[in-house]
Amino acid sequence: MTATSPARLVVLVSGAGTNLQALLDACADPSYGARVVAVGADRDDIEGLARADRAGVPTFVAKVADYTSREHWDRAMSDKVAAFEPDLVVSAGFMKLLSTDFLERFLTVNTHPALCPAFPGMHGPRDALEHGVKVTGATLFVVDGGVDTGPIVAQVPVEVAEDDDVASLHERIKAAERAMLVETVGRIAREGISVEGRRVRIGAPAR
To answer: Which residue among 134, 156, 163, 165 sits deepest, i.e. has the most Cβ atoms within 10 Å of its Cβ?
Structure first.
């Protein structure tokens, strides 16, 4: 990532790619400081890949079933991503866990629809609602070997309304999550990022 060339993003998707679309839209502005150089998926025929095709962005697919082992798939995915020399990998609705070797090779960020470390896993909005919290939100984190356990890069709060159900709460979280992702990835691209243990800093270290 330099002042003269935009940061190179590889985005991984498994479905509709709404977060991918938000990043593609943001990258259309040269001042954003990043560009999506490739979109990868673990499934064929998904809208996320179609969005990339419409934007003229190269795509690749690595389906676990096409490989002799999960380790073989891990290596293939890593090599496919490496071919595009990313500065940052963004997991945007990618539904496969990435190996430790992959995560050591590429700085990878992901979002979660809750305020980590609360309510990890597949049902963050539902779990928050059932717990009766008054505020939940979304988290952007550096992916590690756990489930939604990595160092936190950014968070955004979302108030829980009295008449919320899971669907209505999740929709508001997704809107906040998308805005946070776009803003923070842009800052990482323009200012850089450092990760020391669980401490994440965007921009130059404090003097």
So the answer is: 156
Place of tokens 């923070």: 184
**pTM score > 0.90 for this model?**
yes
- Is 112 one of the catalytic residues? yes
Per-residue pLDDT tens over the stretch 64-82: 999 999 999 999 999 999 9
> Is the CB of residue 128 less than 8 Å from the CB of residue 119?
yes
Residue 205, helix vs strand vs coil: coil
Q: Which residue is catalytic, options 112, 123, 131, 170?
A: 112
Q: What is the DSSP code string of 125-144?
A: HHHHHHHT-SEEEEEEEE--
CA distance 24 to 41: 16
H-assigned helices in the chain: 18-27, 47-54, 70-82, 100-105, 124-131, 166-191
d(CA 78, CA 122): 24
pLDDT digits 0-9 by tens, 13-63: 999 999 999 999 999 999 999 999 999 999 999 999 999 999 999 999 999
